[in-house]
Amino acid sequence: MNMMTLWHLNGWEFAALAFAALLVGFSKTAVSGANTVSLAIFAAMLPAKASTGVLLPILIAGDVLAVLTYRRHAHWPTLWRLFPAVAAGVVAGTLFLVWADDGIVRISIGAILLLMAGVTVWRRRTADAEKEPDGVTTRAGRAKARSYGVLGGFTTMVANAGGPVMSMYLLSAGFRKLGFLGTSAFFFLIVNTSKLPFSAGLGLIDADSLLLDAALVLFVVPGALLGRWAVDRINQRLFERLVIAATVVGGVQLLVP
Question: At CA 71, angle to CA 147 and CA 217, rounded to 5?
Fold first, then answer.
């Protein structure tokens, strides 16, 4: 990212980025996956690859607020099952970024998100969701955790778009609303923090991007507070539909030139 990108944002462009930052806070404490809209806004206002470096610290700020809000509801057995596969996905995503251009990145992530949404809808129509999120202890559950973990690590490294992938996994595993939010909060705080050296090494995070982050991170807090207010007023069925809808919207936005 260069000084021209930072200092030549007009009022409309900064307002769009501020709204996207607010939406990050909302997504972290209410409807996970909604921040794919934020991803699309950042990619539209800034160079696509550079936008991922600017967005990452903002996501981490939202993760911290989500952990503080839902720390008692995390399901750690699920997290421990996911982390090794996610690490492999992050490494694969880093190598992909070295090779791929912006267009290939957008199309690849958008296609994955739509595929995950379709698989989840199909699964929920053909089988009852598990009552407890303990399916990771079975062979099929471990295989599912590995596949989603690799995809989640890959998409979060390439375009900060791991949220919808992990949302689809947690929904398919039968997580209820608070368990979903608590588990995803710790997951993304750990994963996004671990991505910092990779992003810095790729030149996606520098002094200029951090300066823009300092201005935008202030908008994450009201978004998180709005999300915490809203989540108690959203029933489980509506919550799941909103998560899936946000995933589809984000995937379509990434596929549209």
Answer: 85
Identity of the amino acid at 76:
W
pLDDT digits (tens, 9 = 90+) for 129-184: 444 454 455 566 667 777 888 888 887 787 777 777 787 788 777 788 888 889 98
Instruction: Write the single-letter amino acid at 226.
Output: L
Closest CA to 54 of 183, 167, 181, 220: 220
> Maximum Cα–Cα distance for the chain, whole Å?
54
User: Tens digit of pLDDT for each residue in 182-214?
Assistant: 998 999 899 899 989 988 888 889 888 898 999
